Amino acid sequence: MAQPQAKEKPGKFVDPFITAKGEQRASVRLKTLETLWFNTGSLCNITCVNCFMESSPKNDRLVYLTTDEVKTYLDEIERDELPVRELGFTGGEPFMNRDMIPILELGLSRGFDVLVLTNAMKPMHLKQDKLLALKNAYPDKLSIRVSMDHYDPANHEKMRGPKSWQPMMDGFKWLSDNQFKLAVAGRTCWNETDADARRGYKALFEQEGITLDCDDPWQLVLFPEMDETADVPEITTDCWGILNVSPEAMMCASSRMVVKRRGANAPTVLPCTLLPYDQSFDMGQTLAEGSEPVQLNHPHCARFCVLGGGSCSG
């Protein structure tokens, strides 16, 4: 007589509410919507190693947002009196979007703090005059965060490709010389301590005559890596107490992101910047629909936010 076969246990990050071990999956409720992110499009002028977005000159899975599409969400914020204080723009490379300057002007004119993530290379260089005009018109409202994977040019180019260092530094120094509100985004994959990394960046900036406080976690953000091949634990409701981490500290407790996928009729709202392609996290087309709690049913929730302590917001 054949023996009954045991049922195979489900893998990790499958059931939105129950982990593979049968425990209750952690979730995060939206405490207050402070930051609204827009992915301006997945195209980028370079292809970086381990880019979680897989951005490149060929990746157009997320199409360019238009000024009118961004305006729809700013109108919703105004109409519903939502507490959004900051708009964030990421990509891809945001300055490849032909509407980027009008989009920034729209957000700034509405009184928002505006943060742009950029590689500070040629796409930004081509918009220097208009970008400087915006900075002069809204000097305390516009912030630029430059991706600098390491303070050593050789390591930076290991990630971003040959001849990527100098164009970035030219753009970064132009921003500094023109007194933009500046930050840098680095990576933590170099087998060095946080303190050593900050000392390295500090020495570089002093050498280049750039004023930036490397001990300030906003001015120098060191992001945890998001290696999708690495095994990470699922986050349960008990983990908040075990790890002494508050769900209110998670990015999705105060942020949402808008993307427009290729072929879609309209943009959609997602919990955060890390899950642009996973349609299981789609929350709807409006910010009102995007106010539901978020189940932490993705490895990035564990590796970047809960365990890594990362956040893209300013």
End-to-end C-alpha gap: 64 Å
Structural class of the helices, strands and pairings?
alpha/beta
Whole-angstrom Rg:
20 Å
Largest sheet entry: 8 strands, mixed
The low-confidence runs, each spanning 5 or more residues with pLDDT under 50, are 1-8
Share of β-strand residues: 5-15%
List the secondary-structure elements in sequence, H or E: EEHEHEHHEHHEHEHEEEH
Any key phrases for this structure?
globular; 9 helices; eight-stranded mixed beta sheet; disordered N terminus; alpha/beta; 314 residues
Overview of this protein structure:
- It is a single chain.
- The chain is of the alpha/beta class and 314 residues long.
- The chain has helices at 67-79, 100-109, 122-125, 128-137, 153-160, 165-177, 194-208, 239-243, 299-306; strands at 27-28, 35-39, 86-90, 113-118, 142-147, 181-187, 220-223, 255-259, 268-270, 294-295.
- The protein has an 8-stranded mixed beta sheet, covered by helices on one side. A two-stranded antiparallel sheet has the order 1-10.
- A hairpin with an 8-residue loop joins strand 8 and strand 9 (268-270).
- The longest helix is centred in the middle third of the chain and has 15 residues, at 194-208.
- It is globular.
- It starts with 26 loop residues before the first strand and ends in an 8-residue tail after the last helix.
- Mean pLDDT is 92; it is low at 1-8.
